[in-house]
Write a structure and sequence with these properties.
mainly alpha, 2 domains, 12 helices, 0% strand, flat, UPF0658_Golgi
């Protein structure tokens, strides 16, 4: 059971764990502040477009073949959607700090590695934000035949460039800190599982599967939720909208169901979860089919990542299922006394001897 005292003990275990958490907190604070300001500037730019359109309603755009109203509507939709993109970035940072604490408290090396990778992927998404802002700055400045005040969008662009630089710096720092923390946590698996290399390998697969479920909480659920808010509600009469709604409602219960399933080593339930993940993949392909023409590349990257992680969850779930009945169950069940009752006597003796070892690099 996790207690406040245990959390403090794990965070203060060494200089590397303290630096890891401190760096994660600093990154989250800086990026959330920047994203909040960017979001406010984008909303101000949207208001500027509406005001300029009202004041210059008779104007035309480009060669006059496209109505002003229709083209302005495209711009307004873009700035409305970018708001949700900013919310997604802020949500990711909130999820990231929770995962960072989770990785340190549970001493999960796989989770530390995954967070470093995801932090690096965020640089790509930040770069896409910059490219999109530059594209719209040019479009609003040149293609619209009525004046639009672009100061908020320019400020947002500069802040997005600054945020991308910040992400690069923190990604490099996290790669170094993650390497140090992973080396420290490597001994934890040995203490928990023992010297059996095969058992250690199976335990790592279990860890990666649980990690994939935690990532799916953000990627699968939020992508599906954002899609439903942004696109499906506008045209809910289509059949695919109902499929995506049902899948969105079932995602979180399914992920919890999978975590309980892998701990209890139940074959039938794991097969059900894997089938559901393929349904999630179909749902996300439908999302791409409906939204690919929007040119919203940041959104498309999120959906593709959702498909990749859903496939990873399927593969890791099948791999974990292959390891059922091979002695790992006693090591992955939650709880104290119940878990110990499932351990063989010689393993209890080995664990008792391992608890005398302490790791401290201070």
């Amino acid at each position: 059971m996790v207690t406040v005292e245990k959390v403090k003990q794990r965070i203060n275990q060494s200089k590397w764990t303290k630096l890891y958490i401190a760096t994660a907190l600093l990154q989250v604070i800086i990026i959330i502040v920047l994203q909040s300001i960017i979001a406010s500037q984008n909303q101000a730019q949207e208001a500027n477009i509406e005001t300029s359109f009202i004041n210059h309603r008779p104007s035309t755009i480009d060669d006059g073949t496209t109505s002003t109203s229709a083209t302005v509507d495209i711009a307004l939709r873009r700035f409305d959607r970018i708001k949700w993109e900013n919310v997604a970035f802020i949500s990711f940072q909130a999820w990231f700090i929770c995962m960072a604490f989770d990785a340190v408290v549970y001493q999960n090396a796989a989770e530390v590695i995954a967070l470093a990778v995801l932090n690096t992927i965020c640089i790509l998404i930040g770069g896409l934000e910059v490219m999109d802002a530059r594209r719209w700055l040019s479009r609003l400045d040149q293609n619209y035949r009525f004046p639009i005040r672009l100061v908020p969008l320019r400020i947002a662009l500069y802040l997005e460039i600054a945020m991308t630089v910040v992400q690069v710096v923190f990604a490099l720092i996290f790669i170094y800190l993650s390497y140090a923390v992973v080396k420290e946590f490597g001994w934890v698996i040995y203490k928990k599982i023992g010297p059996d290399v095969v058992m250690q390998r199976m335990y790592r697969i279990f860890q990666f599967f649980v990690l994939a479920l935690k990532i799916d909480v953000f990627i699968e659920f939020l992508v599906s939720l954002f899609y439903f808010i942004q696109f499906a509600i506008e045209d809910f009469t289509r059949w695919d909208g109902y499929i995506i709604l049902i899948v969105t409602i079932l995602i979180l219960p399914a992920l919890y169901f999978a975590r309980a399933t892998v701990a209890s080593e139940h074959y039938g339930r794991m097969i059900v979860f894997i089938v559901f993940q393929f349904i999630v993949i179909v749902s996300m392909i439908l999302m791409l089919w409906r939204t690919a023409s929007t040119g919203w590349w940041t959104w498309i990257v999120f959906v593709v990542l959702g498909i990749v992680f859903a496939l990873s969850s399927c593969a890791l779930g099948a791999w974990s299922m292959h390891n059922f009945g091979k002695g790992l169950k006693a090591h992955v069940q939650r709880g104290g006394p119940e878990k110990k009752e499932n351990l063989p006597a010689h393993e209890l003796q080995e664990q008792a001897s391992f608890t005398s070892w302490r790791i401290d690099d201070d």
